[in-house]
Structures are given as structure tokens and as C-alpha cells.
Amino acid sequence: MHRHEDAEVHEHDRGLSYDLPVLARRRMIRLMAGAGLIPLVGCTSDGETSADASAKGSTGSASPGSSAECATIPDETAGPFPGDGSNGVNVLKESGVVRGDITKSFGDSAGGTAEGVPLTVTLTVVDAASGCGTPKKGAAVYIWHCDRDGNYSLYSDGVTEENYLRGVQETDDKGQVTFRSVFPGCYAGRWPHIHFEVYGSLADATAATAITNTSQLAFPKDVCETVYASDGYDSVDNLSGLSLETDGIFSDGHDQQLAAMKGSVARGYTATLTVPV
Questions:
Q1: Torsion, Cα of 82, 192, 14, 123 (10° steps)
Q2: Which residues does residue 273 pair with via DSSP β-bridges, in sequence order?
Q3: Are 140 and 199 in contact (CB under 8 A)?
Q4: Cα separation of 108 and 194, whole Å?
Q5: pTM of this structure
Q6: What are 45-87's pLDDT values in tens digits?
Q7: Measured between alpha carbons, how far is 241 from 223 in angstroms, rounded to an integer?
Q8: Which backbone phi and psi does 28 adopt, to 5 degrees?
Q9: For residues 151 and 2, is the Cβ–Cβ distance under 8 A?
Q10: H or E element: which one contains 35?
Q11: Which residues does 44 contact at the CB level (< 8 Å), separation at least 6?
């Protein structure tokens, strides 16, 4: 059994005592919005809600320069394995963490490589206040996730000397960052996901300070089932007892966090997500 799959750590990652303040605030905001107490969404000029506009933004149809507001990416826990200095080790201050290919460990690590179905992740960071139409150029994104065995580098037994599947990128003129990785496994109790933090600048990210947003990306069920049926993965049983609707993080809404996917096991997959901040 992996270190993070024991009861104590598993509950930590699912958002119990460590994560309740974040999740409670989020659920309360949604509850109040449903009662009409605070406006989370507004109407665009054609009568469409800003939530709808945000959803369209994930497919690239938001219009630059729009003045309507859209919902920011939901706040989620960083979990017990962030590697950002908030829970032990801090990979963000290590030389080499700014990179596009995160499959290999770097620096003074053991030098291992994460194996698995190739995955390219592109996140597009946009300004929520502009209706998700304005790219956030010069921001930075730090992503991290488990390997195909469900282990997190720096923390899990057997890979504490590795730092693969962690990396930082600065957003380009389109507000985009792209990482080359491998499809993560599914460990007991959590839907397959990628963690990420958004920073105002690359300098902030590599100083591990001033996080503006912390959230998680979710993968579609059909893609997970296909990947986990391939060689090298042992996640079928863990996935079978889970759903997005019962996951401790995504159960209160995952529309803004569900990645758009293309590809195959043979060619590898691409995952894209718009991140309003």
C-alpha cells in the first residue's frame, strides 16, 4: 500500500480537517448564490449567464475585451503533497524547476523518469474580471501530480528522492503554459487529477510566495478507463469505486475543472483547461 493511501493521509488529501475551511467556504458561497444572496454570475449582453460564458471560454469562444465578469476557477486544497514549502520540502526554489517536460527528476534528485501514457497539459490563464477574454500574460503556473502507481515524488515511499511530475512555466502572450507529462494513476479515494497553483509572476512562483489561486484539474471518465486498461497501470479497481459526483473535492461541482481531452493511448493525450483568475 502506498504511503498516501493509508487512512490518515488519504483523508488529508480528501479534504477533511486539513481542507474543510476551503471547502466549507466554497459550499457556503454556492449555497448563498442559490438563495439569491450574492451574485456569482451576471448576464452578458445576449442574455447568457457569465457561467455559460466561462464554460465557452474553455473552448476558446470567449471574446477578448469582454467586460462581463465570469467565475474564477474554484479554490481547492493543495493536499498533503504540494512541494511548495507549505508542507515540508520546497521544490519551487530549486534550480531547474522552470521547465516544460516534467517527466524526469532534476537537480540533486535520484534522476528517475516517470513512465506512463504520454500526456500534454495546456492551461490557459485568463482574467475573470474581463469575462475570461483577456489572457494573463506573465503569470506563472506550478503543476504537480502522482505517477502511474499513485505515488507523489518527494513524499511517497520509494520516490522521496525524486522530484519528477513537478514543474513551473510562465504564461505566454496567450496566457498559456504547456507541460509534457504522463497520465497519472488513480489511488484509493480520489478521482484522477492534477494539482496546480497560479502565481502573479514567475518570480513569485520560484520564491514560493503570493499564490493567487490553488485548484485541481479533473479527467473525463472514459479517458481514465481507456488509459487504465493499458499496460503499466494498476488503477482499474480504484477507479471503479469512484465518481466525480462522490469525490471529496469535485462532488460540489467540476464543470470548470474537467479537462477537454484528445488523443489515444498509442499517440498520447492532450488535456486543455481554461483557468479564470
A1: 50
A2: 123
A3: yes
A4: 24
A5: 0.79
A6: 233 323 333 333 333 333 334 445 699 999 999 999 999 999 9
A7: 16
A8: -65, -40
A9: yes
A10: none
A11: 50, 52, 53, 66, 68, 131
